[in-house]
Structures are given as C-alpha cells and as structure tokens.
Design a protein that fits this description.
Structural class: alpha/beta
Distance between the termini: 141 Å
Length: about 280
C-alpha cells in the first residue's frame, strides 16, 4: 500500500503489568515524574460520564474530517486497546459518534482519543467508556481516506508509537513509551508511597503558619480563668433510703450499727450528769 494510506503491523505492546499499575495512578503524578515533558495538550478533554483510561495505543493518522481509517481501527482492535486518532486537531467535522461508540464497546476497547471533533455528545456523556476529544460539532465526517494505522503519530507535540501506554483522566491524556514504563511508573509509585507516610510533628521545626493561631494572652486567660462551665458543680441528689435497692445501700454490718447506738447512749448519759452545770452557765 502507498505511504499515507496503509495498515502497519504492531510489533510491540506494553506489558499488561504496567497497564494495571497505571490504572491506580493519577495522570498528573506520572507527568510530574516524567519531568512534565510529555502531554497531549490542553484541548483533549474527557467527554464520557466518568472514569480513567489505560491501555496500549492503537494509533490512527487520518486526514482532517475523515474517519475511514478510524472505522478500520475499530474492526481490528482487540480488547483493552486505546484507539488514538491524530486528526490534526481539526474541529470542522466530527469523526466519531454514538454508533462508533457502540462498536468500540462491543470490541472491548479501553478508550478512545480523538485529536479532532466528535458528535452525539449527550450519548457519549452518558456512557462510561472513556472518550477524549478536542471538541464537538454536529457536522458529519467524510469516508474517503487517506490514513494510516499503527504508525507513529503526534498530538500536541506528544509522540505516540503504536503499543505505547496511553493514560487518561480528568486532567487529560498522557502517553508513556514502552521503554519508559518501568522507570516512570515505578518512580511514581515510590513518590506516592512516600507522600502518604505519616510525618511526625516537631514543634521546634514547625513554622508559624503550621502552628495553631492562638495568642499568648488567650492561653494565659484560659489557664488563669478556666471557663465557668468547668467550675460549675453538679447538683447534689438527696438519697431516699426507701427507694434504694440493696445494691445501692452502704455495706454496714449490724455490729457496727450496735456500736454506734452504744456510743450515742453513753454520750446522752454524760449530758444528763452535767446538765446542772450547763444550766448554771446559761443563767449567769
């Protein structure tokens, strides 16, 4: 087939191990680890209901506004592929819509990336299958070609080879070359684990912005004058012995009660013996 109008074979595909690891990582974190040197551009936005995307790239390069080779890519895609279409960023004609979305779902495609326009936006927005595109228009596509499948493409300066790892979430789309997956994803995992470890607080090393905004005068007032609610005593309850259960009464033995009665009777006798003297003192 002629250059520019052909289907190439995909020689390498990113290992499934890296695809699975990438699913749990934010695109922004991986981009940071890759020195922020790769990006699909700010125009590629999620058009689907929700959810991230990860899988090996099935690349398509097509004439702007034409989707002949996009249909062919859907025919040969395998489950888990991400179809990435370089349509030159043109928004004049939509090259992907609801019927193609249904076909992609039947094929088990993991996602669609269109550097161009889509239509049937409401149906795509209600569907969980990840679709990223640069815009929306009601104008339909041409189906004449030319185009290429499985060749190298570039979106927003980001070069994508067929089989590379392609990721997407709310922050956009990122491609990771097969040979960079081990370094990029492993470093991202290490950085996330270290960032999630608890950091012990050392007051001597805390900056003023990290401390609680409590003035010294407020602290002194709290120490010298505790709130009245802390000083208010609970009301005392009178004990009614008739309503006390056996478990509520004090464990006083009968011998202790008898001893107490004897002590009170002896005190009464002493009062009677000294009664005359007390009355004399009272009259004087």
């Amino acid at each position: 087939m002629a250059v520019g109008f052909r289907i190439l074979s995909r020689k390498r595909v990113v290992a499934g191990e890296w695809v699975e690891r990438a699913r749990a990582l934010p695109v922004a974190n991986i981009s940071d680890v890759m020195s922020r040197m790769a990006a699909g551009g700010a125009t590629l936005r999620p058009m689907h209901a929700a959810g991230g995307m990860a899988g090996p790239a099935l690349t398509v390069k097509t004439r702007p506004g034409d989707n002949l080779m996009v249909h062919k890519a859907l025919d040969i895609a395998v489950a888990g592929d991400v179809i990435v279409v370089d349509a030159g960023g043109d928004l004049s004609n939509a090259i992907f819509g609801e019927m193609m979305l249904a076909q992609a779902a039947r094929r088990g495609v993991a996602g669609i990336v269109i550097d161009g326009a889509i239509r049937d936006a409401a149906a795509i927005r209600a569907n969980p299958l990840p679709v990223f595109a640069a815009g929306v228009t009601h104008r339909g596509p041409y189906k004449d070609g030319p185009g290429e499948i499985n060749g190298p493409i570039a979106i927003g300066g980001m070069v994508i080879q067929s089989g590379d790892l392609v990721l997407g979430d709310d922050d956009g789309v990122l491609a990771v070359a097969i040979d960079d997956c081990r370094a990029g994803l492993s470093e991202t995992l290490r950085s996330r684990i270290s960032s999630e470890l608890p950091v012990p607080l050392n007051s001597s090393k805390m900056t003023s912005s990290m401390r609680l905004p409590v003035s010294t005068s407020a602290v002194a007032m709290m120490v010298s004058e505790p709130p009245s609610s802390m000083l208010r005593a609970a009301p005392k309850k009178r004990l009614n012995s008739s309503k006390m259960t056996s478990s509520m009464r004090l464990p006083v033995s009968t011998s202790a009660v008898a001893s107490d009665r004897g002590s009170r009777s002896q005190a009464g006798c002493r009062d009677q013996a000294n009664g005359g003297d007390r009355s004399r003192y009272a009259r004087s």
